[in-house]
Specification:
The complex is a heterodimer of chains A (about 250) and B (about 300). Chain A contains ten helices and no strands. Chain A is mostly helical. Chain A has one domain. In chain A, helix 6 packs antiparallel against helix 9. The longest helix of chain A is centred in the N-terminal third of the chain and has 32 residues. The radius of gyration of chain A is 19 Å and the shape is globular. Chain A starts with a helix and ends in a 6-residue tail after the last helix. In chain B, a hairpin with a 2-residue loop joins strand 4 and strand 5. Chain B starts with a strand and ends with a helix. The chains are: A mainly alpha (about 250), B alpha/beta (about 300). Chains A and B meet through helix 1, helix 3 and helix 4 of A and helix 2 and helix 3 of B.
Chain lengths: ~250, ~300
């Protein structure tokens, strides 16, 4: 194992976060804070409790997931796409580094960045709404698992993207709608029966409800189903990235 | 001399069916400077990209220091440094950090004093804390060289090192390359500047349309494939060549004031002595004599045209 290479890639990517601190940290914190102010404090005060918690507190897991998913995907997608775009990917490809080491470096850094943002958002949320975490270890486990899984997914997108437009398509057109329609701001039970059934085909529903269960011990979906679906998606991402890297798609010719 | 890179029957066909390399076989000797010479699209960059692990070969094999580039990629790649043709650098990074990053990628522990030495050798030490986008094109190319040297490679590939570089910097670059060779590094450079190959390479390999046309010592290539020409200036212009001189295939130049004679330096008898003797007998009076050697450029153009 080339640990020095993993370390080099990891800190190289973390350094990018430090250079773009506004984009990496401030931007998600500000946008999430606005959600808490508008939906949590202003509108939330007029909405009755859901699953036994105030509306402001109810939306914390969903908004956390929204940020984690979009940040994890964009961090790692951009992390691998940018060197492809500038051509500096040549040095990673020409170095004595295995595919696994490349993935650990890039995905590890992306997941770390998302985790930092997630923790900051939780702290930010505590300023606006009453925050209660019933199962903190489970919450941490889900937090890390989500960051890793979606960083891997983003890495896959970055590998396969040939331009900036393709890089943005999945996060903007697929992930954001799935999160908003995945019960981040409401419970599935609030939907008409038909749309409830449709929602069960949305994978993000399982993630948000898993996270919500770790906060409040209540959700629309059984926690084990949530964990299994997240692990299943993680495995699918690992297989996808392994195939793409081993075939050299998007990097080697 | 021991071979450090051995290429055997190497071929590459890209997805669009373009065959960039056709059955190339080439041995590169330890501690030599070899220039891969060829026009644009000849296959030079594809060849070095395969050796460095960036492009996947279609068939054939390559060993570096007797290790296969695919099976033993960690060992071979750790021996190789690559300076790409394009200025492929992350523009917002700092010079020192970026060079150190490359060392890490190659599995080497941080060594700030070595990086300092490399940057000083390449006159970049003053720019160590500058962002890459603040540097001139020549400096960026030197950063690429610094990165390629950061893990102390024994084989260095330079892909068009002087492309877009001014004359002064090109001379500096050649000196850096010669110094590296003197320190024990084997240098493989691709170029389409004949002058560059002639100035610094021990051997030249001419590639065109994916085929290796010739490999030889630069001086031997010029000697064996080049022709020499003897130009004789006459005191008085001639209207036609005397019949006695017809067998020499002479060319009348300069309105009859000069004649030229092509000869093969490698043959035992150049025919110069008998030509001069016959000229004396025909009564032609000589004013001056000079010889001209066909350059590597002439040979290259001829080879590529024949191909």
């Amino acid at each position: 194992m080339n640990f020095y290479a993993i370390r080099a890639i990891y800190f190289h990517e973390m350094d990018r976060m430090r250079r773009t601190i506004g984009q990496s940290i401030l931007s998600p914190v500000i946008s999430t804070s606005l959600y808490f102010i508008v939906f949590g404090s202003v509108i939330g005060s007029m909405i009755p409790e859901l699953d036994g918690v105030s509306y402001g507190s109810f939306i914390v897991p969903g908004l956390l997931m929204l940020t984690l998913l979009t940040q994890s995907i964009s961090n790692s997608a951009f992390g691998i796409f940018f060197p492809k775009f500038t051509g500096s990917i040549y040095e990673v490809l020409a170095a004595p580094v295995s595919s696994l080491e490349i993935i650990i470096g890039f995905v590890g850094a992306s997941a770390t960045k998302s985790l930092i943002v997630g923790v900051i958002i939780l702290i930010t949320a505590s300023f606006f709404v009453e925050l209660k975490i019933q199962y903190p270890l489970l919450m941490l486990f889900l937090l890390i698992l989500t960051c890793l899984t979606f960083s891997l997914f983003g890495f896959l997108i970055g590998l396969l993207s040939n331009n900036f437009e393709q890089l943005q398509v999945v996060p903007l057109i697929i992930i954001t709608p799935l999160v908003f329609l995945g019960g981040s701001l409401y419970t599935i039970e609030m939907l008409p029966e038909f749309w409830q059934k449709v929602s069960y085909f949305n994978p993000v529903v399982y993630l948000i409800n898993g996270m919500r269960w770790s906060f409040y011990g209540a959700s629309d979906i059984n926690i084990f189903i949530s964990i299994v679906s997240l692990v299943g998606f993680l495995i699918a991402c690992i297989v996808g990235v392994a195939i793409v890297i081993s075939k050299g798609y998007g990097t080697k010719t | 001399m021991q071979n450090v890179v051995s290429i055997k029957k190497l071929s590459k066909i890209y997805d669009n069916d373009f065959q960039a390399l056709k059955n190339i076989t080439l041995d590169i000797k330890k501690n030599e400077i070899i220039a891969l010479l060829g026009p644009n699209g000849a296959g030079k960059t594809t060849m070095i990209s395969i050796i460095c692990g960036i492009v996947i070969p279609t068939s054939g094999s390559v060993t570096v220091d007797n290790f296969d580039i695919i099976k033993d990629y960690r060992r071979t790649r750790s021996l190789i440094g690559l300076v790409p043709q394009e200025l492929s650098l992350e523009q917002f990074e700092y010079v020192f950090n970026n060079v150190s990053y490359t060392r890490g990628l190659y599995g080497k522990a941080p060594n700030p004093s070595l990086i300092e030495k490399i940057l000083k050798d390449l006159s970049l030490w003053d720019k160590r804390n500058s962002r890459i986008n603040e540097l001139s094109g020549g400096m960026k190319r030197r950063v690429l060289i610094a990165k390629a040297l950061s893990h102390e490679p024994s084989v260095l590939f330079l892909d068009e090192p002087s492309a877009g570089v001014d004359v002064e910097l090109r001379q500096e670059m050649w000196q850096v390359i010669k110094d590296l060779r003197n320190s024990g590094v084997t240098i493989i450079l691709t170029t389409h500047y004949i002058e560059e190959a002639e100035a610094i390479a021990d051997r030249v390999a001419v590639i065109n349309k994916g085929e290796l046309l010739v490999v030889d010592n630069t001086s031997d290539l010029v000697k064996s494939m080049g022709q020499k020409t003897l130009v004789i200036e006459l005191q008085e212009a001639i209207q036609a060549l005397p019949s006695k001189l017809e067998r020499y295939n002479l060319t009348v130049l300069n309105n009859g004031l000069s004649i030229s004679y092509n000869y093969d330096l490698s043959s035992k008898q150049t025919g110069i002595t008998s030509l001069l003797q016959d000229m004396k007998e025909t009564g032609l009076k000589l004013k001056d004599l000079k010889t001209e050697q066909s350059s590597l450029e002439n040979i290259f153009v001829e080879l590529v045209r024949e191909n």
